[in-house]
Fold this protein.
Amino acid sequence: MRLLFLGDVMGRAGRDGVSERLPGLIRDYGFDFVVINGENASHGRGLTESHYADLRAAGADAVTLGDHAWDQRDTLTYIEREPTLLRPINFHPTAPGRGANLIDGRNGHRVLVVNAQGRVFMDPVDDPFRTVEAAVAACPLGEQADAIVVDFHTEATSEIQAMGVFLDGRASLVVGTHTHIPTADARILRQGTAVMSDAGMCGDFNSIIGMDADEPLNRFTTGIARERFTPAEGEATLCGVAIETDPSTGLCTRVSPVRIGGTLSQSLPFA
């Protein structure tokens, strides 16, 4: 089975990049399942229902969120009727939506997708290790799930590394999101789980983590907010990670970073 995970979609540039390139990637590389983090897709903050629909139409089988989950107020309502849209599982128990779901892929595979948020340098949330472990234990890899993908939305590299080791042998892929910068550590752990500390973003890298550089630079140099942050709108680099799994176990047999388009060095799936 081949799975593709794309990092935080950043504004219009990221949405356009996904719409233009993802259908061809699915066709050319035979991806059976695609997960996209969409928490910055709408003006850099949150995900409107129409933009969620655009990501699904481009080929996303599941869309995950993060600390900006509720920045677009309509998400509080439409997430309840969209089983393929996930918010962090360790949000407050009264939060709308769901943090994990077993989703049917385009070729009949069943994939458990889990979204969680870290606690290091992030807003206070419940224990991500306990909540993720409960979701994985309820839908074991190789039994109920053909693959398990965990999107861990966190600031600290150490926290995502710990989650990868914690789930080694119990998940197909544990991947970090949130920082927007792709890391160079994609690998398969000893018991067969692929891990990557941050998938990066789908956005314009001629920017400061996806935002037009002027206002972030102004705030760094003066300490004074002058105007709102606005997403950069140049050509996006699609960043993420691709994996292949063993059909009998669901564990990873091959992992490949993905960087396509824009200004970063290019890395095609399984090149």
Summary: The helical segments are 11-29, 49-58, 75-78, 128-137, 157-166, 214-222. The chain has six helices and 14 strands. The chain has one domain: 2-260.
